[in-house]
Amino acid sequence: MGRWTSASSTSPTLLPAAAGTTCRTGSARADRPHALLEAFDAFEVSATQPGPYADRVRWEAHDGDRLVGVAELELPLTENPDLGWAEVHVVPEDRRRGVGRALWDAIAERARADGRARVGGEVSVDLEVAGAGFAFAAAMGAVEKHREDHLVAELPVSPCATDPAYDVLTWRGRCPDEHRPAYLTMRNQMNADVPVGELDLEITVLDDARLAASEERLARSYDVRVAAARRRSDGVLGGYSLLFVPHGADHAWQDDTLVMPEHRGRRLGAALKSAAYAALPPNVTLVHTWTAPSNTAMHRTNTAMGFRVVEHMHEVEVRLA
Ligand SMILES: CC(C)(COP(=O)(O)OP(=O)(O)OC[C@H]1O[C@@H](n2cnc3c(N)ncnc32)[C@H](O)[C@@H]1OP(=O)(O)O)[C@@H](O)C(=O)NCCC(=O)NCCS
Fold first, then answer.
1. Cα(199)–Cα(221) distance, rounded to whole angstroms?
2. Which domain holds residue 73?
3. Which residue, of 119, 141, 163, is where some domain finishes?
4. Ligand 1, atom 36: closest residue by C-alpha
5. 171 has which bridge partners?
């Protein structure tokens, strides 16, 4: 998907990227000991089997025969057509030589050519190790729009009992047909409810076809696990928790946890998470999650279970001139 971009004798040459996980891992690990890194499996699926809802453009920066940096631009195709999402990585030994800026210039040029007015990104900063990401993003013109905490918990976490009026049902991979309408309603409620600060985003609306497409794609790189709370009296689903385990990994990452408004106040969020973690295979020993500090209920639920904050994740945005 990528394209050649200009290279002068003093700046690194930018090539369309075919792979970049090693470089990305080296860059992220340099100042982010708790970074959740995309596994090669997931990278391969996104690089070789592009989905219908977003284009991805990738660059590698080479200095002679050395790979010194990688960048990626995601261009959503169905909503947020004015926006792109970017990521830039430079290996530690080649920083402060202008490689990051050259990659960013390529991203901005491509995004503008595609009619995008702004580019967003996530910059994660370790609580103890100083990193360059935030200063770099600011130098590229980015402003902060939202912040989340990145938390981790070693398993097992403190268990949380389920309210006796509910039971917890679980599935892996595709949501069973009988639960799909309720699950779609909850997923869309989550997309509408999740705090995004000042990020101005058009909300993604999932229908059955889009859910099925995402389930099918995700299954290629993740063991996707869902726990849902079902009210015993009428079988109504009152909440769900979505967990990803990269194939073969020793860690999981917690995506959505939602309790529908009329079911709140019964600690179902904690019960769902605790049920999902208890069912993980024994080789999975760590869970990552992200929560906005302003999302008091979820933040307290997480810390009460044993999660601790390890990074601040800044969602930033650059307005393209
Ligand atoms: C952030 C990162 C991509 C910067 O790459 P780089 O090649 O060192 O960046 P550049 O040399 O092009 O720097 C461009 C400008 O960013 C700012 N900057 C970069 N690193 C900085 C640091 N450590 N401290 C302060 N400012 C910094 C400076 O303004 C710099 O311009 P200058 O050198 O003329 O002063 C690199 O440190 C990295 O890969 N970090 C880990 C991944 C990450 O956080 N990516 C950003 C979020 S997607």
1. 29
2. 13-141
3. 141
4. 90
5. 226
